[in-house]
Amino acid sequence: MAGLAMPQPDGAVLARRAEIVSALQAIVPGEGVIADDTGMRPYETDALTAYRQMPLIVVLPETVEQVAAVLRYCYDNGVKVVPRGAGTSLSGGALPVADGVLMSMMKFNRILDIDFPNRAVTVQPGVTNLGITRAVEHEGFYYAPDPSSQIACSIGGNIAENSGGVHSLKYGLTTNNVLGLEMVLVTGEVIRLGGKHLDAEGYDLLAMMTGSEGLLGVVTEVTVRILQKPETARAALVGFSATEDAGRCVADIIAAGIIPGGLEMMDKLALEAAEDFVHAGYPREAEALLIVELDGPEAEVDYLLARVEEIARANNSGYLRVSTSEEERMVFWAGRKAAFPAVGRISPDYLCMDGTIPRRELPRVLAGMRALSEKHGLRVANVFHAGDGNLHPLILYDANLPGELEAAEAFGADILRLCVEVGGVLTGEHGVGIEKRDLMPEMFSEDDLRQQQRVKCAFDERQLLNPGKVFPVLHRCAELGRMHVHKGQMPFPDIPRF
Ligand SMILES: Cc1cc2nc3c(=O)[nH]c(=O)nc-3n(C[C@H](O)[C@H](O)[C@H](O)COP(=O)(O)OP(=O)(O)OC[C@H]3O[C@@H](n4cnc5c(N)ncnc54)[C@H](O)[C@@H]3O)c2cc1C
């Protein structure tokens, strides 16, 4: 794997493969265990396709009891486990390890309870994000966080990555819309966090689990809040001949006290690719395009659209078109939602980055990215949740050309460093995974990282769940709290550090 070290596979576990397969088959009979190369091949990567690794075994449990029994067996026998939903992670979160079981949760695909009076839906973790909205839309409800991958990604994966989407600016990320979870700990114990009730005493473990990237437990049930569809929603396409003007317009809209339902931005390369793919009617002549959606009562939407128009003009916008029907609004969004695959049509490969910055810094960071593009000799297409300051630069490269993947990764790392430098963070919604693991020290001090690992140790002392992800340096739990490097003498020199 290019440039990324993963924990060394445990030879003793590899040698016991046949025995582990038999034990898992006894827990999950029938087709619940996949142990042949052809059957396991679809699981060797997620949407960060530059990295591949065949797992030791794939297991597909169907019941909570099976999840608990598999985890208990792995815990007792020192076998690693990588939980997996639909495999759309862009940070390599679901990348298998050679000496670990890959636990796919996609057979957990049932909607368990729809409770309109409490505005809550309880589902199994393998239900797709869009599947929740589909189940409640006949009553005028929907589930707000809407990643572009919503047709495929699972709600379990959304919890693990704290996913967001174009509507997160106004309605929040996954963490703001989850009410309760059931999860199985690595020891096989089953715990429940939160529920339909408001608030709970004690530590807010529910919030901690959201975004825990499969490192703390396996989610087996999810209760989410659903919202009533707004009375009106209209979207405006706003074109600019300078990207920096578009960035300033975003900051000015929010500064004016307007919180759009969605506020997205595409640069020229991205909008042209999307237009060629979807024919959404985007202005090709623009250097940057904003999609601004206002929702709520009709009179409020009309008023706010007029305000947005004024702000756009003040920022030198030369193009503004407001949707006049629901069909047209959906077409405006179709281009944005298809922007990643659209960029995939103009380049053999791309790396999708994910950093977040204070939105005032948009013009500076966009200019900085142009300079970095020249430095690394690679093109970058920008598609992002501008209102949240959550950037998704797509770095275009060709994996068949020697050195291009490494150049793309170096470019990506520079972009994320720039995000941190201007007061932002390494990830907005795609998680750390393996992709940003080695950049964590850019953002966090050693004390910060050790404290985060103490939380990991409280849940998974043997470090069996999703190893090699998120933390750049592996600390044995026993040493946390007392490691002190004296004159270069590292204690516990036998611990693998990767
Ligand atoms: C084209 C495209 C567009 C995308 N757009 C967006 C976007 O707009 N916004 C956004 O936030 N993301 C986006 N993503 C990223 C991705 O879809 C999300 O991160 C999603 O939440 C991953 O869900 P998944 O089911 O595919 O999880 P996987 O990729 O299978 O796993 C992701 C992580 O979750 C863990 N996990 C999965 N299920 C469980 C479980 N039941 N219990 C515990 N841990 C679990 C895994 O161990 C892994 O760490 C996009 C991806 C693609 C390919």
Secondary structure topology:
Blueprint: H1 11-15, H2 17-27, E1 33-34, H3 37-40, E2 57-59, H4 64-77, E3 80-84, E4 100-104, E5 111-115, E6 120-123, H5 129-136, E7 141-142, H6 155-161, H7 168-171, E8 178-184, E9 190-194, H8 205-209, E10 218-225, E11 227-228, E12 232-240, H9 243-255, E13 262-267, H10 268-278, E14 288-296, H11 298-314, E15 317-322, H12 326-337, H13 339-344, E16 349-352, E17 355-356, H14 362-376, E18 380-384, E19 390-391, E20 393-397, H15 404-421, H16 440-443, H17 446-459
Parallel strand pairs: 2-4, 3-4
Antiparallel strand pairs: 1-2, 5-6, 6-10, 7-11, 8-9, 8-10, 12-14, 12-15, 13-14, 13-18, 16-20, 17-19, 18-20
Bound molecules: flavin-adenine dinucleotide (FAD).
Flavin-adenine dinucleotide (FAD) is lined by residues 46-47, 82-90, 93-94, 105, 125, 147-149, 153-154, 156-158, 160-161, 163-165, 213-214, 218-219, 340, 429-430, 466.
GO molecular function: FAD binding; oxidoreductase activity
Cofactor: FAD
Keywords: FAD, Flavoprotein, Oxidoreductase
